[in-house]
Design goal:
The protein contains 9 helices and 4 strands; from the N terminus they run H-H-E-H-H-E-H-H-H-E-H-E-H. It has 208 residues and is of the alpha+beta class. It has a domain at 14-90 and 129-191: NADH Oxidase, CATH 3.40.109. Belongs to the nitroreductase family.
Length: 208
């Protein structure tokens, strides 16, 4: 096995969901931005990147989120809460994204125009529930990538779907276009996370 695989495997196995954070530990805005910059290399449907982030470090705001998140302790003691928001109208960025890829030399003009035409023929007319499913799936990809990056840098996380999404959207004045997907608490563990088991592969995978 390659050294890269060994490193990745170690990070995967070390990452655990932490719910007790060291409330005195601070992660700088710059380092969080650095982690997010790497995380947004995650794939997305047609590269439309339907994710947005609200990074909450203010202590009073974290207390407000704690109430929205059914009083989960980690929302108040972590260094930051990263709210992953889904853009269900990701099609508004079609021209911008493919033009950027053309200017970067990743695609030629013919392919740019073809991709723009295909995306505009698909996403704006897709039912709202289909676009929400796409957005949720893509948000899951970047959330996992972010948590692995955090662990590789020596930090801990827990991903929370258990919060009142309607209240969160209202508290942060989100328009209907944007949907809260998950909250990721980021910080340093105050106590080690406990291990969990996984179902045997032979019970969940079929090779044909």
């Amino acid at each position: 096995m390659s050294e890269k695989y060994d490193i990745l495997s170690e990070v995967i196995h070390e990452r655990k969901s932490v719910r007790k954070f060291d409330s005195s530990y601070n992660i700088s805005k710059e380092e969080i931005a650095s982690m997010l910059t790497e995380a947004i290399e995650a794939p997305s449907s047609s590269n439309l990147q339907p994710w947005r982030f609200i990074i909450i470090q203010d202590q009073e705001t974290k207390k407000k989120v704690k109430q929205i998140a059914y009083n989960q302790e980690q929302t108040e003691t972590c260094s930051a809460i990263i709210a992953v928001i889904g853009d269900t109208e990701m099609y508004h960025n079609i021209d911008k994204i493919y033009q950027s890829n053309f200017e970067a030399g990743n695609i030629d003009e013919t392919n740019m125009e073809r991709l723009i035409q295909n995306a505009k023929g698909l996403y704006p007319s897709a039912p709202a529930d289909v676009r929400l499913n796409i957005t949720t799936f893509d948000a899951g990809l970047i959330s996992m990538q972010l948590m692995l990056i955090a662990k590789a840098k020596g930090y801990d996380t827990v991903c929370m779907g258990g919060f009142n999404k309607k209240q969160f959207a209202e508290a942060f004045d989100l328009s209907d276009r944007y949907v809260p997907i998950v909250l990721i608490a980021l910080g340093k563990a105050a106590v080690p996370a406990h291990d969990t088991t996984r179902m045997p592969l032979e019970e969940i995978a079929t090779f044909i």
